[in-house]
Amino acid sequence: MSPSRTAKPSPPEFLFKTGSKTFELVRILRRRGHGEQHFLAVRRQPGREPVPVFLQALSLRGGDLSPLRDPRARLQESLALTRLLEHPRIARLLGGHEVDDRLFLEWEHVPGYTLDDVAMLPLVYVHSYSEAFLVHVGLQLASLLGFLHARTDARGLPLGFVHRDLHPQGLRFGPEGALALTDLGDVFSRLPGRVPSSITRPHGEVYYGAPEVLFGEGADARSDLFSLGLILLELATGLHLYSLPRALMDDLEARLPDADAKRVFQGMMVAAQAGQGSGEYSDVVVHAAAYRPEDLESLMSRLSPGLRAILHRLLRREPSERYASAEDLEVDLRAHAARLGGNDDGTKAAEEFQRALARTSPLLDAFQTDVGAFPPGSVLHLPTPAM
Hints:
Blueprint lengths: L12 E6 L2 E11 L5 E8 L6 E9 L11 H14 L8 E7 L2 E7 L4 E2 H10 L6 H19 L21 E3 L5 E3 L29 H4 L6 H17 L11 H7 L2 H16 L5 H12 L2 H7 L5 H10 L11 H15 L6 H25 L16
Antiparallel strand pairs: 1-2, 2-3, 3-4, 4-6, 5-6, 7-8, 8-9
């Protein structure tokens, strides 16, 4: 009988080498249109400790290129942005590497779970995050947006930053309960030398876009606050304003007055011109034009009146009816936190998430098999690693 042998782990998957640096794949995190992919990788150099990094791969092939932005120009813009947006909770762009037909943007690795993973836990284990947890997340996001929106140039002139793509996959909930922004790929600014898009287009993840963005009408700081509201609503309820329960598309379309129907049509034309038109996009735009305050109220029925009032104001269809700034939102969130017993420095929020994760972990395998909710890029895809 042959002696037992310990199975050797499979060798790491080599991505590319540039100079003395070698990059090995840990896992694929995300795929987007026009050949864009996001990876968690390890950077190795002789004589140095391995370093985990995020890689954003942009295609340089003609057929895969977005008709709107040149990847090399995007790299230069992103490098300029990260120099202006130095913040302990905003990931830094470390550089770029052109390899064959792809451009790899190398981003600082931020530990923790995506906010998408945080929001998924209640679907596995019947659990609702406390309002203190939700307010903590809201304050963290409002603080990040306030920093972003307020940036000025060397002369003190506003740079007009708007994120335009705030979504749960681009946010990480760290071990101490702090939220970090890890994706600056669609930030608008008035930076000198910025290459504008040749045509108007919708920006960011469709399901987290403000109505005016989906209608092709542009974006400002209040558009980012709407996205923040959608994220908080989903985290609080597991539901989404652009996927109303029991709502049929015919019923939603019947609600639309002629003016709003024209905005939907405009949004669809803008999306089609940018190569983003689809049945899914059409459904989302109709939802954005047709939802009513009572729809939102029904989604929030289990929340306190104070938190419902904040979310109602964040999720007004017309920007003029929302919070004027992230600072105004912070005032209301801090007042609500005080009513709940005080502000949390992150410790209690981190403990609450760890308790939810511990209670959920035994059920993840069966849930993942039955529902298929956690793709391989998710850190909740089993086996669940330590944070």
